[in-house]
Amino acid sequence: MTDSTARKHYHDIDGARSVLMFLSVALHAGTVYAPARPWITANLDRHDFFDWVIFGLHLFITPTFFFVGGFFTVLLLSRRSVPGFFWNRFLRTAIPLISIAVTFNMIELYLRYRDAGGNAGLLEWPFTENFATIWTTEGWQLHLWFLVSLMPMFLLAGIIDYLLPKKSWPRSKAVALSKMVGKFAQSNAVFPFFVILLAMANTANYAAASLVPGAYELLFPGFQSWYKLVSEFPFFIIGVMAALAPNFLDALCKWRNWMPWAAAAAFFFQPYSFPHQGFELGFLMLFLNQLVMWVLVLFILQFFHRYFNQGGPRTAWLADCALSMYLFHHCLIYIYGRWLADISWPIGVEFVVLTAMAAGTVMIFHEYFIRRILFFRLLFNGKTDVVRPEKRKLSAAA
Predict the structure, then answer these.
(1) Most confident of 2-6, 159-163, 165-169
(2) Which residues form the domain of 93?
(3) Which of 94, 319, 380, 389 lies at a C-alpha separation of 20 to 30 Å from 260?
(4) Which residues are 225's β-sheet partners?
(5) Is 342 a domain residue?
């Protein structure tokens, strides 16, 4: 299948991805005021509420992104050759990752260095031990770790697609398995047990990853540990299976009246595993943590499938802005957060202002620079489809 072939647009999944990108702004804004994560050292205004908010958002935002990554990987490979897929992922993932890593992430990391007591000037900083440590550890990644984790998954998917003929036995079995699981999960009575099985698979994945020698050490300088690299892999795999079997996607997105209540309880209680809990309790809490993750992820899919499945210009614009929002907001949160640290506003007001300022700045930058100037469009979005002035006039006239 080629790019010119008519294709189905998954407005609900695009909408979920877009809204979650905007929610990630609130997540990182919350870290400015969360006692458990003293992200900006100059800010002394903290409240436990923001710990609850950011830990709750962490439960489903990134896992949903990995599900979406797996889902669209299959769709891309069905529409492109493997070299075309790799070129697309290089443009859409690697180039924006590198562009932000060497620009906005470096600005933020330099500000962090100065806030922590560093005294080197901007031109001297690259020759300091702090700068070397940033690039030999995961420090340079900041929020970009998600894209770093996705790239090996893209590579693996492309290699498998290249090695296995279209009508090979493993491919047919993968599709058959996905359809079988989809049929199993369709039943309202069975679905709760299916969610429990998903949580068990995640827990087994964590347990297996922890047994790998050196699992918590970086695989090579500047990259990630094996444990971190595979921690979200089950969400990617379920996304792949949902793309292989439409009935499986339907089962995941089928509205179930009890899911909003389950999702609310999951977000409220937020079970997490900690070392001080011991092995038995810690293992149980890990399972419960994975269970609430899946409840929240599946609720997101069902909610957007039910209420945001029609698409439209606004949905399309938000989907286009999603990558820009992800890339740029982190540095802006830090910059605006530093400024707000010296202002004596109520902490809730500061949080709302910080979130709105960061998101608003990205939206303006995306509309007037990313969408309209080829250099920025390619560098930060991996695209070349800029909006020409004559097209804007036609759109306004319409």
Answers:
(1) 159-163
(2) 73-296
(3) 319
(4) 218
(5) no
